[in-house]
Amino acid sequence: MIKDMHPWQQVVTVLRRLGDVRPPAKITRIRSTRLQAIEQHVFVRVVDRPSGSTATVEWGDSTSGYYGDQIWRRGKAKCAGICAATGGAIARGDLVYRPRGGRDTPANAHAMILASVVPPFGMAPSGTG
Fold this sequence. Notes:
By secondary structure, the protein is α+β, with helices and mostly antiparallel strands. Helices cover 23% and strands 31% of the residues. It has a five-stranded antiparallel sheet, with no helix packed on it. It starts with 6 loop residues before the first helix and ends in a 15-residue tail after the last strand.
């Protein structure tokens, strides 16, 4: 019984039990991604729409640096995540924009923006960040 233990051992026992309860991995990943986005103070702004399937994005954060005119392509989310522009939840399969890969993988390659917040092709972007 806990009552028969030394007070310090009671504390350690209770803390160990608290650590046994874990939320499902999917929820943990979304929460940690949202916290990362908040802590990183990401700046995101759609600068241009060169085509119906691409957007030129200005991106800056404390860990992946600054991209003034990065091309992002539209596609389906391969996993759940958080919209870099709004902080809203992204479900697997949602239409999103992601940084275009090239010879070198960009530091923000994991980032996504919900397609619904990107201005339609032919409309002047007003900024999302």
